[in-house]
Amino acid sequence: MRKTIHWRFTMILLLVGFMTAVQFNSMKNPKERDTRDIWAIRQDLASEKRFHSELLSEIRELDKTILTYKSLNIENTGRALTQTVDKLYRQAGVTDVEGPGIIIKVRPSAESVALGLPITGISPDLLTRFVNELNRFKSIIFEIDGKRYSILSSIRDINGMTTVNGLNVSTPPFSMKIISPTYADSEKIYNYLVASAIHDDFYLDDLILEVGEPEMAVEIRGYPERLENQFLEELPKGE
Predict the structure, then answer these.
(1) What is the pTM of this model?
(2) CATH number of 97-220
(3) Residue 215: phi, psi to the nearest 5?
(4) What b/e string do you get for 97-131 counting C-beta neighbours within 10 Å, with b at 16 or more?
């Protein structure tokens, strides 16, 4: 009887020891090691905090809209709905917009022109990186080579050509426009872009960014294509 108890106790100790050794080894040598430095982690953390802040702002805006509908009577409900639709059209980039902003020109670098190097179009990766730089700022309206960039837009490579909304982006030189809520916001964007390291990325592709100074009136055209409704249906009156 004692031998049986000792044998079971020994097996339990061996099992516990084996599990402890495996756990210690997994903690000491993880499968995926995070090799990022402190600045990369801080940038990811800042990006997540910015995304969280944007979500909270959207929730507050939706709460305001709900409170507005609840406080209105039947006569003013139509007006509130019209204002909401206009706001959504603006966010989707359908309407023409004019306001304070800056104009940016993308040109071939002077060295590439002097050396007679072939001028190629901007790559989708570089253009996407530039758009991501601008996404640091809220409520901006953006146009790339006359093509309205909105939440519905995409930057892709189609048959070797960089496209926005399925339309080819011109071989440099071409212009990009940014409209911000206020002139002060345009100044912040201007100062940020002038000092941004994105210039180095453009220069590596034999391109340069010419950031124009803020202007009081910059005009951006709306998205020319008609938006198709696939899910909503209009109910007959009285329902």
Answers:
(1) 0.61
(2) 3.30.70.1880
(3) -125, 155
(4) bebbbbbbebbbbeebeeeeeeeebbebebbeebb
